[in-house]
Amino acid sequence: MFGRKPKQQEDEPEVAARQSIYTTGGDNLARPNAIARHNVLSKHFVAPTSSDGAMDSALEVSPIKADLSINGGVPDSQFYWYGAQGFIGYQTAAIMSQHWLVDKACLMPARDAIRMGYECKLGDEDERGEAIIEALKRSDKRYGITKAMREFIHMGRVYGVRVAIFRVESGDQEYYEKPFNPDGVTPGSYLGISQVDPIWMVPLLNDGALSDPASISFYEPEFYSINGRKYHRSHCCVYVPFPVPDALKPQYLFAGKSLPQLIYERVYSAERTANEAPQLAMTKRLIVHKTDGAGFFSNLQQSLSRMLDFTQVRDNYGAMVIDKEADDIQQHDTSLADLDAVIMNQYQLVSAIAEVPATKLLGTTPKGFNATGEAEAEDYRIMLESIQSNDLEPLLARHHLMTWLSDIKPQLGGDDPEINVQWQPLDSPTAAEWADINLKKAQAAQIYAGLGAIDGEDIRERLQQDKESDFFGLEEKEFEEETEGVAGNV
């Protein structure tokens, strides 16, 4: 442990606290003691005080003088600065999320990832296909899956972890303590998805997850204790947006970093910089009055009274009267050029950490860095697609399975289908862009028809099935009547 005292010099309370980080109960599960762990870790990751010098003074520390057994040769002041950036606590993260910029950075990706929606597809052809898909759409609305997905990502970024529980009304009192079994989902038993803030739950690990680093579930909670009841992890969907290495998982209560922890310093700097702007605008003019210093201080009361009279006419619309023989007045203006770029650069650093383009997060054109925002927008789309495929699809897959077992299968019967999710494109083309897309489709169809690869019936069938086409849903009989008329004329 970093900064540990020699064994013979350790305080008894510290030894007791370290030993109580995990307490093993009768069910052979290790329960992390958050308070004891925080006390121990705080002793070993302490930021240097002001007596250690300024942060930039770390550059003067020779790595040769560093204790190689503690920090691998990194200068102490730099090492402890990084070490101090640890877990801030769930309550602190919740308080910080009240700030408009922090909350927007947490919420915006959640809203954008699900904004365009998705379509349910069946893996194999099934005569029940239309009925199953329609039933899934109705169930998604009834259970509020869109709201659940938005909250899942939003609060996961706020806290660094989010646990969604698929609620089932079961007669088995130990249903949630046992691993998930689809046979335990009876008709009408699925109630929906509940989500629990991490302040209300305690992660529980078994012996294998604590002692065997080769275990698949090493340092992964086996159960979550909520209100005195244990929930096996197979009944939950866990979202950790910013994972940490195994060495830090106990410090983070076996979760991950929260977005408020990552950006709070930059948000504070950006807001302070922005608050300086109106103050600079009000105080950018500095008046220097050259006078006899000895005479000024010899009768200070009278001198201050004259200065007060001077300030009464010192604005942009007043007159300034001075003694042409004795007084010398100079005005120095502070330049505000590029101040807006300095402020925006601070906010762009916040956007970079949050992985949200400044054009979306702030609704303004980016300044500085010669940026246009196009590359950032592309990175943002990649991040949203990652959220969809890696974080939301497991949630949807389990939800659709529970819906099928509880609500749809009792009505339709048959084998369990393979239900897949196809996300809609994240961009919404404009009317002009849609017109251009349809024109290119028509030109491509004309070329293929000219080559003899397809005929008019194939093109019409394609138009019938293309949901983005103006001819979506045309009836087949109309085409048959028209072709019969053309054949008769010929």
Describe this structure in words.
By secondary structure, this protein is an alpha+beta fold. The chain contains 18 helices and twelve strands. The protein has helices at 12-19, 34-44, 68-71, 76-83, 90-96, 100-114, 129-143, 145-159, 207-211, 259-283, 293-298, 300-311, 339-354, 358-361, 374-412, 431-451, 456-465, 476-489, and strands at residues 22-24, 29-32, 118-122, 162-168, 190-196, 201-206, 223-226, 229-232, 236-239, 285-290, 328-333, 419-423. A hairpin with a 4-residue loop joins β1 (22-24) and β2 (29-32). The radius of gyration is 33 Å and the shape is flat. Mean pLDDT is 79; it is low at 1-10, 13-26, 34-69 and 486-490.
Distance between the termini: 92 Å
The shape, in one word, is flat
Structural class: alpha+beta
Instruction: Tell me roughly what share of residues is in helical segments.
Output: 40-55%
What are the secondary-structure elements, in order, as H or E? HEEHHHHHEHHEEEHEEEHEHHEHHHEHHH
Radius of gyration: 33 Å
Strand order of the largest sheet: 1-2-6-7-8
Task: Give a brief outline of the structure.
The protein contains 18 helices and twelve strands.
Q: Layout of helices and strands, plus pairs?
A:
Blueprint (H helix, E strand, L loop, with lengths): L11 H8 L2 E3 L4 E4 L1 H11 L23 H4 L4 H8 L6 H7 L3 H15 L3 E5 L6 H15 L1 H15 L2 E7 L21 E7 L4 E6 H5 L11 E4 L2 E4 L3 E4 L19 H25 L1 E6 L2 H6 L1 H12 L16 E6 L5 H16 L3 H4 L12 H39 L6 E5 L7 H21 L4 H10 L10 H14 L1
Antiparallel strand pairs: 1-2, 2-6, 3-12, 4-5, 4-9, 6-7, 7-8, 10-11
